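User: hey, got a sec? need NAD(P)H-quinone dehydrogenase folded
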Amino acid sequence: MASDEVRREHAAGASPVREGSRVVIIGGGPGGYEAALVARQLGAEVHVVERQGMGGSAVLTDVVPSKTLIATAEWLTVTEQAPELGISSDGGPDGDAGTLRADLGVVDGRVVRLAKNQSDDIRTRLEREGIGIVPGTGRVAPTISSAGSRLVHVTTDEGQDRTLEADIILLATGATPRILPTAEPDGERILTWAQMYNLTEIPEHLVVVGSGVTGAEFAGAYNALGAAVTLVSSRDRVLPGEDEDAAELIEAVFRRRGMQVLARSRAAAVRRTDDGVEVELTDGRVVTGSHCLVAVGGVPATAGMGLEEAGVQLSESGHIEVDRVSRTRAYRIYAAGDCTGVLPLASVAAMQGRIAMWHALGDAVAPLDLSAVAANIFTAPEIATIGVTQKQIESGEVEGDVTHLPIARNARAKMLGITEGFVKLFCDGAGVVVGGVIVAPRASELIYPIAIAVTQRLTVDQVANVFTIYPSLTGSISEAARTLHRA
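Assistant: Yep! Here you go:
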């Protein structure tokens, strides 16, 4: 147990600052490897325990693979504008229309290859910085030494036991796909988002259960790749947690492209048949398909790590409770990423990890500010958001104004054949930009100027007075800012 002096230090929320502090990070995803780089930069001795591979699920089975797959699908959606742009085909060798098609074997081979390359690059970077990588599974010991150090017990990939002593521990173990007891995945026909890269051919008919971000992204991607897709949504519309106008636009695009969207429909069970799957809905209907993706959220990877015995407080859902500098309630234990349940974004995980090390090692640090987090949904078109929402302004929670500009009015959009999408900008009573939404191709890139404005508390007039390229899609951001000018 800790000495009285150590207990007093913990109660005061203080952290020791010393050159050569020993940091052990459990989990090598964005939260873990970004924290490792900061800790090493500040002079700490760092070890990262990772059982899957550097980059974690974000690089190996989630963000990097899914967005690589979506990149191929995006090229196919771009061809929708071909006739308007004067592009046509003389037809293929069999007399067809020469329609572009994706070879899923090639696509998924590229997905796996890029994920591995990214993982290898991260590992090389960490090793070059002198960070120790321990392949295996970590468990936190409950005891604290009289000097305040803690122990992490590791079962290595070779089955050996190893103990690491730490002055600071960071938990960055991420999350795994949530499994429904009535929809057990088999990795062949009934799949989680981590198993979608096992496929070698485009599904004849993919049934997607869950219309959140993951479900919508995969449904849109496979629809563009040529699969028939049925999207089962338990809510009134797809993407229920997102900007209402954006979600309605994406659902309309899905339907226009031939996707069947079953709103207010909840899956009761998914069963494998001789040649496909059956998805039974709670109202008794049965949807048949060749494959089913069950995308109903994630479960924090916190079980079996000895966390509660070590003093870490978990929520009912199993998430690690942290404050805005990533501290848990356990002495010298921090946490970052999806295991905390703060926001399931790689960018947030990375920032939480960096903040944890800045705080733990005594560097200057600002607490996590979720109002400055930009997020993106990689549908086609993409949806990017930051800051205050329109709902908060309309409800009176935030005093402010809203402007909405259809992207089709933009000259560059007309040249590119872009007809669907918009730019929204929100400002408070003083004219300061407090949020925005962009629905457009490459919205993930276009949101950056608005993110700068929100973070730096720029006014709409300051944004409007920045030169933009003509013609450019960013011109619509400037125009939106001008419409919010107050005389």
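Quick note: The chain is about 30% helix and 25% strand. Let me know if you need anything else on NAD(P)H-quinone dehydrogenase.
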